[in-house]
Amino acid sequence: MCGIVAYLGPKNPLPIVLNGLQRLEYRGYDSAGIFLSDGLTRQTTKVVGKVSELRNELATKNKFDAQLGMGHTRWATHGEPNQLNAHPHVSNSGDLVLIHNGIIENYGVLKKELIERGYHFTSETDSEVLVNWIEEIKKTSGVKLGKAVQMALSQVVGAYGIVVHDNSNPMELIVARLGSPIAIGLEKEGFFVGSDATPFLDHTREVIYLEDNEMAILRAGKDIQVRQTDNDTLRTPTVEELKWNLENIQKGGFPHFMLKEIHEQPDAIRNTLRGRLFAEEGKIQISSFNEHQSVFTQARRIIIIACGTSWHAGLVGEYLIETFARIPVEVEYASEFRYRNPLIYSDDIVIPISQSGETADTLAALKLAKKAGAFIYGICNVVGSSISRETHSGMYTHAGPEIGVASTKAFTTQIAVLSLIAFKLAVIKETLSPKALRSHLIELDKVPTLMEQLIAEKEQVEEIAKIIHTATNCLYLGRGYNFPVALEGALKLKEISYIHAEGYPAAEMKHGPIALIDEAMPVVVIATRKGHYEKIVSNIQEIKSRKGIVIAIVSKGDTSVKKIADYCIEIPESSECFTPLYATLPLQFLSYYIAVLRECNVDQPRNLAKSVTVE
Ligand code: G6P
After folding, report:
1. In the chain, where are the structural domains located?
2. Is any ligand 1 atom within 6 A of the Cβ of residue 604?
3. Cα separations (Å) of 548 from 92, 468, 542?
């Protein structure tokens, strides 16, 4: 969702902010804008569309030596994507400038009051209301910008990551967050601000993450002051070292991030398993489990909360944990869980799963469960993200940065982490013999190598994409562990190629989707040998009787399905519990190749955001 970049310091802010915005493009947006100032000259430029268009527009404008830059990519919430609604927003006096990520829920009330006091508005946004609300407080209370921001935010309901600038103090920036992430990069005499650290990765490795209800006052060449927004308590911020490098966030010779990230999965899973899986010894080492041994021993129930692809990984987690550790698991959409007054007990373990660690609904659901006394054990990819900081404990997936909006390596590494958790719990609960455990761990250890072989055979998937890329609907079916994979396959296709696709448990086909099947309907069926094979073969026959086009994902060496399906894609033979790790890959490739053939924007599909920081 919206991306924020700002720079205050001795360097030219224009390229820093523009390149930074380009790095945040993956978050999803529909308009962009930039504000530049040297204290005297002030220039605001906004466009509907991409950062490249903003760059072109700026090339037509007068150049000057700016000392401060504030840039924004907007994902429309209040008001359609147009120039007026794009950020930065300027207050009525022209003095204050603001960029905002989040939603001000009570903006209507504040706007009404401001209009009564003579303010006018050029946009439909909640953000323009906020900048004027700050201005009004500053004017009527006679306080400095920092205090005015603090007072204004105390009256705001909603979520925000903001950067505010006051022309009367050109070498200062005020930054604040509640619910929307803010990272501050440090250099000798300057400051970078970003919705995450990627915009300034090539300038500094030192970063401070603002916590919720915190603001920072940045003074060029001077200091940074971090304080609570609801009281004046100062915090000495911890300066963290950035571990990701520029290479991680570049395409590395691939035409799209998504394709690069699909190929990265074997290494990503190696990183997930490193130092945790000792297959030959039949052991799993998870330090956080040792620290909280009694919690895991006494756990009566596990609740997994997540959104999107991470929710699908959660479903695989349910099968894994219930099968191996025999602990009941519930998997909930975070957005439903948080609003349905759920039953949460103190001996529940709640597992939020999130690639970004910033999804607003997952974060809110986590906080609710924490308040109710549950133990929160997070699975996140982004180190230092809001969710990872709110949990009692957890595991990182170590997949590296995922830039493509359609999640790929995050999903398979989440499944790898959930496998480790399931097997570790099985050890604790003594529900799996050491021999069976060791044999499963040896199989898990082989996943990255077998995935590499599978990736090498991607051309067969490309050929199938050429045949079905003009379809308007598509059905994905799977049973058991592969039901969530069917959901994920369908999600991938609709996200990036805009083909309507649905994932279903194969047996449910008879309760509705079968009515849709005809000679124009491709049906992707996961029909691996281990797990309900005969039943799925019958389902394929039912599809073929109705002239559907069957694309089957089968185990290597399969003969039965090959006789009836139109197209088959082979994946390595494995225990049923590991089939999601293999079956997912051809489905990712399929959606990728179809989207490319349909000339869709693979990495930044329309209307979607990588990190959904508003509910
Ligand atoms: C968005 C992304 C999805 C992602 C979901 C949950 O919808 O486009 O790819 O699965 O958010 O995100 P999270 O970061 O919490 O895993």
Report:
1. 3-247, 251-456, 457-598
2. no
3. 61, 12, 9
